[in-house]
Amino acid sequence: MAPKITGYKTHDIRFPTSLSGDGTDAMNTDCDYSSAYVKLYTDSDLTGYGMTFTIGRGNDIVCMAIQELAKRLVGKDVEELFSNMGKTWDYLCSDSQLRWIGPEKGVIHIALGAVDNALWDMYARSRNKPLWKLIVDMSPEEIVNSTAFRYITDAITREEALAMLKEKAPTRAEREAKVRELGYPAYVTSAGWLGYSDEKVARLTREAVQAGFNHFKMKVGADRDSDLRRGKIIRSIIDDPQHLPPGRKPRDPNGPDLVGKNAGPTGSVLMIDANQVWDVPQAIEYVKSLAEIKPWFIEEPTAPDDILGHATIRKALKPYGIGVATGEHAHNRMVFKQLLQAEAIDVCQIDSCRLAGVSEVLSVLLMAAKFGIPVCPHAGGVGLCEYVIHLSLIDYIAISGTMERNVLEFVDHLHEHFLYPCSINKNGRYNVPSNPKEGYSIEMHEASIAEYEFPNGSYWRSVRGAGKAA
After folding, report:
1. Phi and psi at residue 143, in whole multiples of 5°?
2. Per-residue pLDDT tens for 383-413?
């Protein structure tokens, strides 16, 4: 008899990253990286783990929403849920009273991301496979049945998706072998947070170059002169061959993987990210003034759901060779559909839990592949790097068939809190998750939960105690 889901538990976990300036940008100045974390229990040993990411206050609200959605799974046969994960996703969305406070956006939607991801984690664990391997081993029909298609069939139909997947299926094994050998291309944001001193930016950039990275992202938007200064510091390091690892030769800036990215003489690429801080005209003029540091793209130049604004910015910056990227805060597949249809972006940046879990992510990966736009997922937050390597592997092996121009964000924060942390190889690429027990790689150490659960974890109790003592 298949296990049934018997219950759930949520944890409001907050890490005090605001103390070190990690995660700071022009919009978000005091981030405490946080996880609204859920465990789904069954009447067997099988458990599923999921989370969504916030930056502190409000994490408790998301946990309450997760509980409301998780209730809908109690008593369900897991094999019936697994047999058609697209149908299961539709079911989780279908509570009319909960839907009213979205619909399919905001707190209720990111809460659904945690629940759906936990269910996918459980599914992968039940098959003794990492999440990415579970999906790339599915038939094209099974992947289509796992995908959320409602409201996007004017951009891609189930039949089109099936044909795309069937075309790529015969060569999946070749791509899997290649990425296992090489790793998946990554870029680093850890050197470019807005709250860091120039000295720290320079040191972290040198360390990132030595670690094998050749794509770097810097936060901008608070002060133009400061942005130019910091951009020139980063450029002076990444463009200088003396900083390359021993024996490493410069890459061809006009090679197929770098052409059009404004790569410097060593083949290094700089990206900039404004985190939604500008109006459309501001964005255009501000980014033009940063053209001398030669960014590949400007990320989140304006409000995340302003599709026509992004299209206007992209058109204005095209003569300067600067592209537009967004998606970190695109709250559902319909926003991505419109960004793609309006030719508003050069790079699609899915978020693993801003979208409502794997089933909705699959729909965006399929649309991006159809429109020929590279997917470079957002991963600047606790647990996100652990999640998104799975999604990029699914994209490369089963959907788009390419990783040549794709890069996956990496930030070197808080990985030690996970049982199956992601890792980077000597060439600045993600290693492929390979433990058959890890599922979606998001299970946290119980000691970390006990320390950082808010407000009664040992860390937060000690902070309150220190405050009283003072």
Report:
1. -65, -45
2. 999 999 999 999 999 999 999 999 999 999 8
Confidence (pTM): 0.96
Q: How far apart are CA 40 and CA 328, in angstroms?
A: 26
Q: Are 122 and 40 in contact (CB under 8 A)?
A: yes
User: Are 270 and 238 within 8 A, CB to CB?
Assistant: yes
The alpha-carbon radius of gyration of the chain (Å, integer) is 21
Q: How far apart are CA 328 and CA 321, in angstroms?
A: 22
Active site residues: 219, 378
Q: Which of 452, 431, 462, 451 is nearest to 186 (CA)?
A: 431
Q: What is the pLDDT of residues 318-376, one digit of tens each?
A: 999 999 999 999 999 999 999 999 999 999 999 999 999 999 999 999 999 999 999 99
Distances in whole angstroms, Cα of residue 275 to Cα of each of 291, 300, 303: 18, 5, 9
Say how far apart CA 329 and CA 64 lie, in whole Å. Answer: 21
Q: Which residue has the tokens 């000597």?
A: 426
Q: How many CA atoms lie within 13 A of 332 on its CB side?
A: 17
Which residues of 5-156 form beta strands (DSSP E)?
A: 5-14, 34-42, 47-54
The two three-digit tokens of residue 69, written as one number:
């959605």
Burial 408-432 (b: 16+ CB within 10 A, else e): bbbbbbbbebbbbebebeeebbbeb
Q: Reduced to 3 states, what is the DSSP secondary structure of residue 404?
A: coil
